[in-house]
Amino acid sequence: METYWRAVLESLHDEIIIVGRDMRLKWANKAVRERWDEGRNGPVAGLPCHVVNHGGKPCAASECPCPVREVLSSGRAATALHVHPAGDGTKRYVEIVASPLQCGNGPVEEVVEVMHDVTAQQRAQQSLRRRNEELSAMYRVTLAVGSSLDLDEVLQMALQTVVEVTHMDAGAIYLRQENDALMLRAYLNLSAETTRTARILRLNESACGQVSARGWPLITHGDEEADRPLWEPLRRSGLRTLIHIPLKANR
Asked: Lower CB density within 10 Å: C or N end of the chain?
């Protein structure tokens, strides 16, 4: 019967480990051993749990509370969602269910962890949340356009929405004038020094001018912009990277 149940555990796609009170693995099923690559890295049994699952870094209690320690402390099952490093350098989300192993009413000596990869579900949820944010942003911009005839008010609302959705630190909108100058019409989280310096730009004075003239996006960093007068106040404001995107009016 023991052989049968061992075969069942070995055949599962989910990863299963048994962890002792010393936080070292006592046993691991085939899914764990294959991920660890025992042929190259040696036996997984006896290794600290964090070496096998967290790339050698112990769990940080604030970021990923350890369900094994919780089970050893409380004697009851515990669950957690962890982010584990994958072999290709990416991250994978793992749903963990930890259960106590004990003989009768004695203390918990070992903990069984069942780890289920939920990366696809988590990414789908993140994508859905991002899409909802984008739709909400579009709705707010639409409301602003429909409720105001003041262009500056509409631009400010649009900029604020874009900064929120993209999680940027600051932003600005320039409009191209008939004399080919760029005029600052909306801004968010920029210092007074920056807005004074950058109130009006010529096409050849900054990356904004390049983007306006050429019509495609551009990303610049502090070193690339060091020779431009605009960059010093931006640097003092703590900005290190700028993303410039052209706005094109439909005619």
From this structure: C
Q: Tell me: domain 2-117, CATH 3.40.50.720, correct?
A: no
pTM of the model: 0.60
* Helix, strand and coil percent figures for the chain, each rounded to 5: 40, 25, 35
Kindly give, in sequence order, each residue whose CB lies less than 8 Å from that of residue 221, ignoring residues fewer than 6 positions away. 240, 241, 242
Query: Domain locations in the chain?
Result: 2-117, 118-167, 170-251
